[in-house]
User: Fold these one by one.
Assistant:
Number 1:
Amino acid sequence: MMAKVSKRLRREALAGYLFISPWLLGFSIFSAGAIGASAVISFTEWRLFTPAEFIGLTNYRSLFREPLFWQSLKVTCIYMVTVPLHLVVGLVIALMLNAKIRLMSFFRTLYFLPSVISGVAVALLWVWVFDSTFGIFNVILMEIGIQGPKWLGDKRWVLPALIIMGLWGLGGPMLIYLAGLQAIPTVFYEAATIDGATRWQKFRYITIPGISPVLFFNLIMGIINTFQVFTTVYIMTGGGPNNASLFYVLYIYKTAFKWLRMGYASALAWILFGIILTLVFMVFRFSKYWVYYGGAK
Amino acid sequence: MRGKTKEINWLSRQSIQHKLMKLFIYICLTVGGIIICIPFWWMISTSLKVPGREFVFPPEWIPNPIYWRNYIEGWARTGLDFNRWLGNTVFITGFSMIGTIISVSLVAYGFARLRFPGRDMLFILCLITMMIPQQVTIVPIFILFRWMGWLDTFKPLIIPHYFAAGPIGAFFIFLMRQFYLTIPAELTDAAIIDGCGAFGVFSRIMFPLSKPAVGIMAVFSFMFHWNDFINPLIYLYSYEKYTLALGLRFFQGMVYIRWAQLMAVSLLILLPCVVLFFVAQKYYIQGIVITGVKG
């Protein structure tokens, strides 16, 4: 009997490994293996067409003395204002879209639509929207009587332009909020109403704790996404003018595939990895103070 | 008696407040909606202008005359080979989607339904890969494919997806596993008693039942590959191997940018995504909700 059971378990385990084997292989090559390789490469000077040369920590040391590194870090950090911005604006819109009024499904689709489309076509659309003479943005500003800046061509306005563009596509977090709001049992609100709670109290003590896991999710994804900005800046500005929109990933891309400095690019990638891990870890660490999971979890 | 009238008053005040609130929400949503529509409108209206008229100042909100031919001329008569690039994009997107669906379904089933030592540890590893930005691994993977002689072929864009690789693979595994977990065990137990092996259970019961989740995965993976830019940019060099996303950039390189044609072609390229969104809206929204709320 025992032998039979253990034989069945062994067969199940074997089947299990077989089923996950595509991922195991993919993980070992494209994730774990690649990360390991990236670490090794980061200790070398490797210009792709010449043999790699081991140089220890030199890449990391020279990296901190590189103005472009600090510039790209600065640009990415400034752009991080989109994280709280999206959290707040997304929540406000989701709260409004959660009201029970007519036309609501129409509004939801409309607000979500921009985040469905992405990529080069959208980036080019925004180049045209921000065109300093014929772009719709400056035309509208002129109607109000404001002389619009050159947006993508002005090193002071290029980041605000990208932040405005980012607001257009906040449908993703908004939708997740909406789902979170709808998951809060209405009984809570009814009970609070009977107890005479005000609108604000209900929001503060029911809605906020209720959606805190969702808020947490959006925060993490927001941080990760900020560090992934690439296609839009590559197409819209190429990092310019004067490196004013040199996002970190764009800097990695240029280092690796334009200047062919594989070792240096890997070191940059590792710094990025470290920053993201630290931020995500910090958010996780502090999450226990403000994220409430229902009793079931 | 007095208490009753008071209550009625209180109710009506409440309902006025309620109506005002609704009105306020309507106004806000409408204003926001108009703002969201402006870029779309700008795109459509530019695409319908006679080439050259996009540089008329002040710009026309409604093009006059309406010029439909931008869609044909931009696509086929600019010397850019959009038909070929469409073919390439469909090829890459199609085969990547097939790979993703096959590998992710198998792996997610293994994680959801089979017991083996180290399973939970491995699953956590899988979740962690979701957080590793692609850029961290981009250099070694490029070097690997270069060493294999795969540069300037479609292979680096397709083959990894047969191994559920990278953050997207991990994301889909998570999505599918969540779905498999909701299928009642009774369904599979009966089959196991009847002598069905693990693969039989998967192919005859689990996979057919998971159509909604496969639908979500298909929609997301289509959108990803259709719009992907950085990977084709790194791996494809020959003009005739480009994807639509890569080819569209050539408009930018022209002496002066023909915005009317560019917007027309951009709209054509975005169209499949928008149509897919409206057709599969239910799947699409479910996919986002599952990851956000149940994650």
Number 2:
Amino acid sequence: MQTVLRVTMIYFFLFIGLRIMGKREFGQLSPSELISLLLIPELVSQSVLQEDFSLINAIIAVTTLLSLVFLTSLISHLKPKVQKFISGEPSILVAHGTLIEKSLNKERVSPEEIFSEMHKAGLYRLDQVRWAILESDGRIALIPAADDTIQSPSADEKRAT
Amino acid sequence: MTNASTATLEPPEAPELQRKVAFYHYQVIGLAFLLVPILALLGMFDKSTTHIRTESDELSMEVSYATRHRYKMINDLIVSIQNRSDQPIPLVTVKLSRDYVDQFSIVTFTPAIVRITDSDYEVEIRDVAAGTSQIVRAELRGEHYGEHKGWVNAAAAGLEAVALELTTFIYP
């Protein structure tokens, strides 16, 4: 019965805590949110498993973690420089159909990955890409060329494929 | 964007925002969570010990114990009995109330318990020389949440007994 009570308490405590943190989708976690969510089970598990024996210890640990996440997001919202430091800045990988090699090497992104993302967006030639940007969350955003959004393959290209 | 060539190479930046602190109503309630680590830093949830003392003409008793500690944590309860008279005391019986002790898992009791009655656990101290002290040590592990009250009593034949009240809060 105690285990049930302890797990229930931890469940509601975490639920309320995470709800109050904000309404971001879990698929778009920032690095600090990801670290927090990975750490919370470690902090809580001992108390739930009764190895540490103290529920108050787990509550203190989780509250501390949530407070740090909250304060980090508050400071980074108020101070754009802090936000850039915490979340990083987007990197331009392709500009006007040209691969930016320096950025690709720094970010360790291969041209094949760029093309893979282009294909998902319905693009198949590099000159169809106005910008490819590696965003702070690790995803590649593609902005098609304004007047060449999606072109049909030419007759030659069709034969080649 | 500082020049035309850069403007063509980089996408436009996001517009400026007047950044300020704003919360939903339910998030304001969550600010109370910030108090927990602060209180923890101030030692609110830590173990707290105390020393209490009482005496009669012939006996003095000092008890050192935890007034607050966490669930399943082991803490010492030390009862120090001093013979204040100029005569040796052959036997002092120290009693700890069951109301209090039963809230813990007893790990060790030194000297060992000699009797368990409906109301107390009894330990005997023998041959306490004049002006000297002897101690009873109990290692108690918090077993039940909440506040627990009890007493400790020391008595010797023909001498006035001394007693102290104990109160311990165990965090979940």
